[in-house]
Amino acid sequence: MDVDCIAxxxxxNYIATGGTDRTVRVWDTVSGNQIRIYRxxxxxxxxxxxxxxxxxxxxxxxxxxxxxxxLSSDRLLSSYQGHAxxxxxxxxxxxxxxxxxxxASGSMDGTVKLWDGSxxxxxxxxxxxxxxxGKGGRSDGERLGPIKSFWTRRTPIATLRFGASNxxxxxxxxxx
Length: 176
What we know:
By secondary structure, this protein is mainly β. The strands form four sheets. The chain has a four-stranded antiparallel beta sheet, with no helix packed on it. A four-stranded antiparallel beta sheet has the order 5-6-7-8, covered by helices on one side. A four-stranded antiparallel beta sheet has the order 9-10-11-12, with no helix packed on it. It has one helix spanning 120-131; strands spanning 5-8, 14-18, 23-28, 34-39, 45-50, 56-61, 66-70, 75-80, 87-92, 102-107, 111-116, 148-151, 157-162, 168-172. The protein starts with a strand and ends with a strand.
């Protein structure tokens, strides 16, 4: 198993890793034991990031997909599509509208996308579909789009981070 990305949990007791085996693994930093494994990516995992409250974990794939996991229930909250190339960076804001964090993702395609970082919007859509007999909301298999997208001309995104005041800092890299 190759490890291509790593992130520390906010309490530093756990780390998450992602790699070419298409899984996200959570490890106990004291014992070194694997305690969770998340499967859902169809390609290698290229980025991982815990939310600031430690309740969620985002993972990005080589195919541009971003998955949002609930660490308490061990279930996939949301699956986001929007990048045309590998996801290289992920970060969560510190709260937001209605206390919903924003999840930012950066990609080799030169885009930064902002997503619902709580996963609640996807759950609300599912409830809406069930109430109206599946006629409203999104159809099965359809993924939510980004809240907002930003493009560079041709510069792949190398990293991004939210500051404590929710200002998003982004850095690109020159094409080689």
